Amino acid sequence: MTSKGRILVAMSGGIDSTVTAMILQEQGYEIVGITMKTWDYATSGGDRKETGCCSLDSINDARQVAVEKGFHHFIVDIREEFGDYVIDNFVDEYLAGRTPNPCVLCNTHIKWEALIKRADALGCDYIATGHYARIGEQDGRYFIQRAVDLNKDQSYVLWGLSQECLKRSMFPLGGMTKPEVRQLAADYGYIELSQKPESFEICFVPDNDYRGFLKRRLPDLADKVDGGTYVNTEGKVIGTHHGYPFYTVGQRKGLGKAFLEPMYVSEIIPETNTIVLGREDDLIRNRMMVGGVNLMKYDKLPAGIESLTKIRYKDTGVMSELKQLPDGRIEVSFLANVKGVAPGQSAVFYEGEDVIGGGIIQGSSKN
């Protein structure tokens, strides 16, 4: 074993995880590569060629790197755990009229749990991934920090990691930009990989059509929910839709009906298969409730604390006042109006570069 210890590196076969392994090996760590098979797209009934981190080509690419660089590589099949938790939750959330974020759940409950388990079994001190984020420490607590490359920053999807996971995790790319990573890949001899385009789809919906995925997953769903009603904010019926699970709060396009002015989904009522449509101003909220909270930087929120709060991955965020309730939930008061707060999405709280914590949006209001 090398002086720096043994580290388990999650390898997808892509540029980021490959460069992560190269950097750590160069720094003197003994690398053990692991590729997790989370999803087989063919089982969803899609007609697009399997791509991304779960494809056979990607698994072979990861293994080839390990062979060339002389370190062990393992493939772990976690499709059952992934399907039971992440995909079932994804479907259930849409059926409940909410908008899920499967990447957060996968990172928190599947990937890191699987990595920690295998790291212990293989005698690895740490785990590493190719995420663009950093880890800070203060008063004995660990927390996620934004990446240097804000265009690639993935801190938003890592808010659910526990202290134990953070203590043992490394993100070597957090202090680098994407162009720098591409250049390193080329310098390491992976010219083709350095030019590989990025994928932004959900891994089990590679065609980016979540409505089609729901229909394939639940063949009778479309027939059961078709013909629901659109109502305006006064409750007047103004049209019909194809079923509430196929819409999200804030949606404007794809409503299937022309209106005299732009209309947006402002509320979804699954119990009656009703979608409330409103004007853009009807999306404005200045308060929301967040549950399922995981605090990182503090074990309890300081009284009167303010944060930059993001309500979606690409959100720039808005300053907010946070209040932790006795039941652990966080009441968020926005200091500026916010549009399109979608129940089911993640709310992540930032103090400068540091992630205070995050949770799942339960609801919002204007008052």
* Coarse shape: globular
Q: Which structural class fits the helix and strand makeup? A: alpha/beta
The whole-number mean of residue pLDDT values reads 91
- Indicate the proportion of strand residues: 25-35%
Give the helix tally: 9
| First-last Cα distance | 60 Å
Task: Give the ordered list of helices and strands.
Answer: EHEHEHHEEEHEHHHHEEEEEEEEEE
Beta-strand segment tally: 17
Count of distinct structural domains: 3
**CATH H-tier superfamily of the largest domain:** HUPs
Topology of helices and strands:
Layout: E1 6-10, H1 15-26, E2 30-37, H2 56-69, E3 72-77, H3 79-95, H4 102-121, E4 126-128, E5 134-138, E6 141-145, H5 163-167, E7 169-170, H6 178-187, H7 191-194, H8 210-217, H9 221-225, E8 228-231, E9 237-241, E10 264-269, E11 274-278, E12 284-295, E13 306-310, E14 318-324, E15 330-339, E16 346-351, E17 354-365
Walk me through the structure.
The protein is of the alpha/beta class and 367 residues long. It folds into 3 domains: 148 residues, Rossmann fold (3-Layer(aba) Sandwich); 54 residues, SH3 type barrels; 82 residues, Elongation Factor Tu (Ef-tu), domain 3, CATH 2.40.30. Helix content is 26%, strand content 29%. The protein has 9 helices and 17 strands. The protein has a 6-stranded antiparallel beta barrel with strand order 12-15-14-13-16-17. The radius of gyration is 22 Å and the shape is globular. The model has no long low-confidence stretch (mean pLDDT 91).
